Amino acid sequence: QVQVVESGGGLVQAGGSLRLSCSVSGTLFGAKTMGWYRQAPGKQRELVARVINEDITNYSDFVKGRFTISRLHTKNTVYLQMNSLKPEDTGAYYCNAQFIVGRIGDLWGQGTQVTVSS
Q: Exposure pattern of 84-107 as b/e (b: 16+ CB <10 Å)?
């Protein structure tokens, strides 16, 4: 069974840092795209950052210069280093992996909570 497992959320003060990790297990196929989305209470899920193939990165404007996404392609693993966190970064962070081979499709993790206190 193909699964997405996230870790690294928690409670941090404004200005602090957290690192999220995500791995896909149960397949030898490589995901084309891996990324992170977040959802604040009462709001829609939104893209934070993603890596396409091995080296094409996209960031939403609200995290540029503060967050860095990196990927270990051969292991279907992606990291999100979050620095200079703000209270508005609070929310559930979800890892997403998109496969175009292996009939796997679009996978989501269960989410990890990030809470930034002021």
A: ebeeebbbbbbbbbebeeeebeeb
> Is-contact 69 57, C-beta < 8 A?
yes
The answer to whether 44 and 36 have CB atoms below 8 angstroms apart is: no
Written as six digits, the tokens of 19 are 């690192």
Tokens 């989501």 locate to 108
Q: Who contacts 71 (Cβ-Cβ below 8 Å, separation ≥6)?
A: 34, 51, 54, 77, 78, 79
User: Per residue of the chain (118 residues), what is the pLDDT tens digit?
Assistant: 899 999 999 999 999 999 999 999 999 899 999 999 999 989 999 999 999 988 899 999 999 999 999 998 677 999 999 999 999 999 999 999 999 988 889 999 999 999 999 9
